[in-house]
Automatic annotation (TrEMBL):
Domain of life from the UniProt record: Bacteria
Domain Polymerase/histidinol phosphatase N-terminal: 183-247
InterPro entries hit by this protein: PHP_domain, Pol/His_phosphatase_N, Pol/histidinol_Pase-like, TAT_signal
Protein name per its UniProtKB record: PHP domain-containing protein
SUPFAM superfamilies listed in its UniProt record: PHP domain-like
Organism expressing this protein natively: Streptomyces spirodelae
SMART domains registered for this protein in UniProt: POLIIIAc (SM00481)
Amino acid sequence: MGRRDALRLSLAAGAASAVTLSGVRFARAEDGATASRKLRGHLPTGARDFVYLPVEIPAGVREIAVSYSYDKPDVPKGTPGNALDIGIFDQRGTALGGRGFRGWSGGFRDSFAISAEKATPGYLAGPVDAGTWHVVLGPYTVAPQGMDYEVTVTLRHGEPGRTPRPGYPPERARGRGRAWYRGDCHLHTVHSDGRRTPEEVAAAARAAGLDFITTTEHNTTSGHAAWQGLWGDDLLVLCGEEITTRNGHWLALGTDPGTFLDWRYRARDDAYPRFARAVHRAGGLVVPAHPNCPFVGCQWKFGYRHADAVEVWNGPWTADDELALAAWDNMLVVGDSWLPAMGNSDAHREGQDVGLPQTVVHADDLARRPVLEAIGSGRSYLAESSKLSLRLEATTPGGGHATLGQTLRAEPDTPVDVSLTLRGAPEGATLHLVTDQGTVRTATGSRLTWRTTPSLAAYVRAEVRHPAQEGSGLPGAMAAMTNPVWLGSAPERGGRGQ
């Protein structure tokens, strides 16, 4: 990229989210030939979110390989340095929606290759057809000095070979009929920025006592076909994606296999509703992930209008989760709709436990649609491990009964008996009943009861917490928590109808 391109990029940086620069052209060559070209450039601070480098590919190419590097100058403390993501689109184009999408590895890899027979994890195997491909760079953060980059594109000529047919997971496991099932719906493998293979994640899920998992790689569907032979009667594998925009991350859960969701937009672009609707058409759920994460680009800025649930608990309990819990609880009180809470591990590597936490759902069967319906209905609680189980229910003297995600229909002054029963509580744990007024009852042990009326409590939910650290001034870490039981009446749930 020359000085004129750099100046144009800098002046137009705030006008849109992407720019296309000058690229490279390859000539047709004989089978067995290899040709490489380098693209060098400078990105100023304030560069566009995505920079496209065109690559003119002739007929007769068997494989395209791309590697890249960039400088990492010293920056003042507290100032973001350089971080550059990478991916590629084929000759079908780069328009929002991802029709030409062929892969994304973010900043996790410095090289990748694609052919008809195979592709680097994170990328999609298929023919390297002639036309204009685009290497896409995502300058996630740029140092005050700017960023110098170098991209090397290598073409290997020859017969294209045959693309294997993907083996997608089945929609049903054996299950136990209508029962409680445990799942972790936010997981990463080597198909994005995880260190584990799918084989290792499946083994960890079984060891954690899980019944279902969802594959949610960052901005790619390459993991959907990576679980061949790893599912079984005891483990349901659902397809999904973690969409990592510059204004927050969200999970597409339980979508049709192969469904790709774009990430190249911000909240101000008004594109998110379009892709949320696409998830619903593909049979999935929209779940904002770690909404209070403090890292650049992670905090949720899109609002909750189109969501079906929200990830309140992400990995081991931290202050971020405490903030997410408070915001979620406020949503239960304010407005005319509510979202169920989810808990997922977001595990990437060894030392991050799959199933810490997990969402435990009461579903009609261990199958895709019943599990998603239970998550979206709030018939669930969150727990730090499969050692812990609980039951929260509300009853009236006249025989009324409701449990998680349900509504106990009763007149305002009708007595309501609430009971929380716990098994496998960690040592020293405290049980809490929480309503729209806050915490109303606390106890130790394995059981807690309370009498109220719908006029005094719009809902009741439960928390089980570890002992607080002395002198911290913070509540103890969460061991388990529930979705609410509504008393009297309930607001509508958010999501598909919005």
